[in-house]
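Listing 4. Sequential folding, example run.
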Amino acid sequence: MTLESLNIGIIGLGYVGLPLAVEFGKKYKTIGFDINDSRVCELREGKDSTLECTSDELVDAKLLEYTSSLEAIKDCNFYIVTVPTPIDDSNAPDLTPLKKASEALGKVISANDVVVFESTVYPGATEEVCIPIIERVSGLKFNKDFFAGYSPERINPGDKVNRLTTIVKITAGSTPEIADFVDTVYSSIVTAGTHKASSIKVAEAAKVIENTQRDLNIAIINEFAKIFNRLDIDTEEVLKAAGTKWNFLPFKPGLVGGHCISVDPYYLTHKAKEVGYSPEVILAGRRINDGMGSYVATQMVKKLASKKIHIDEAKVLVMGFTFKGDCPDVRNTKVIEIIKELESFNINVDVHDTWADSAEVKHEYDITLIDELKNGYYDGIILAVDHSELKEMGIEQIRALGKDSHVVYDVKYVFPLDAADIRL
């Protein structure tokens, strides 16, 4: 196979798959496959609800087609899998989407084809889980009839600076020759360059520790915040002071949600336990970060009580529901934990977020977003996500939403010190 003969099939057209399909679709014949018919329809109409790609970018990918028909990708010879890898209710890896994608590939893959996985997994998953499924369904032999690669995604939803082509891409292959070819393919679209790992397992491990490290860094800052709150010290001021040292890492406290940082550590700890090692630091960080939603809600309740505001049936407005600012992604948002905890105190909670899709929020979380905001209505207001529109509103307009006596909790440092009543 050569670059000239590439016929690329992208499996999954979400936050990861679509930008990849668009870039490859500028240079090579590319088909983007997704089981969601409505997703395929919107992309054919030049619209991307994830906002990762503009209409102009979709138009520029002149060699890209979209389909929900598996038969349509049967002639491809270089497949890339970008399906999600979530966790279940027990925080164990849920490889269902990956297994289904592997089964689908087994039905269409042909001799000498290459399949590259980008989904985040634990070290060994590609060769231990995915490849055997493809072999069983296709009847082909791995590294004889077909080959594999791994190139972990590094997409940061909502980030318009660090994008697919400007982030160094890790690559790996199941044989030295395939590793070279996979690296060449990605090098042709990634201007930042590539890093060829020595094996698929190394590439898998590199991906899973990237977000685990970040998770732990945020966890210790969250723990600092809890300590400083008890000492009546503003956490942001402390971080700014400490940040004057050249090697102090600039992390901030907050809710840790989304599809990567709050999920990936569990993939690594799952595999660690499987091989007889009981991870301690990683899981401690996860416990701290997973508890921040409940912590924010409890802090709000305490502040309401200190102002003699009746807790039972109090009205609280949560501003922001997506997992991060200026991004429509609501996957694994930890704002839901704030809402659940507040409701456990019999508090009436309204949620407002113009970035989030109302239908998706209702379907996934059974939360009805409100469209209109009422002045003088709320006992408490929580700025849970740092959307730019909140900054544009200004603290006075936000405070106007509250009753004469109310509490504003600025979780994300949207406004300067003393603008709100509580800051994380």
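-- end of first protein; second protein begins --
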Amino acid sequence: MDTDPGILCFQHCSAQVFCFELPELCPVCNSHLATAHFRLMPFRVPYPFVRAVQHPCSIVIKPTTGDFLHDYLNSMDLHIGVTNSLGDVVEFDKGGLQQHRAGLWGQCLVVDKASGPWREHWDTILKSVSDQDCWSSQRYNEETFNCYTFVLTFLCNLRYEKLSKAATNRTMFCETFIVPRTTAAGKYISLYRKLNDTGCYIQRHPSPLPKR
């Protein structure tokens, strides 16, 4: 299921306008847009979230409860998992280690992914780490032995460039890979919620536009 709400951006006169549907009149100057000359033609703002099943051999994150658009706050915990070459998600939580099609991962962020030549090695190491006896529901601890423990253990064994190097330290990994993704996504989330409240958002001092 496509969860992209389809946020549009355009600029007719002095400000950028964000909306879900192009209005008849410019909300800044009330000119008819059907015959207007746009300073910035309407385009769809890039949607940062993906379906995990479409991103094999990736590290993916999502809120532990709810989804990003409607529920996520900066103070909330994130859940992290690994997709194999088929797009199945392997994750470790209070139920132990689980592998399944990514039904609950329809709105997530990709932290990083492996290139094509690495896919066979990725699957081999993922299976090797998954086969370890320690990933049981009895061993799970929310603070000390959790989903991050599993993913970082996998990455350290994978030996995949900067991703594996950062995985040797949880703080380093979060600062290098998690925070930049959630910060960028947070801007989209904030914009989406403003539009849900007002239907239109006017940005009078434009910042650099998202790349199309």
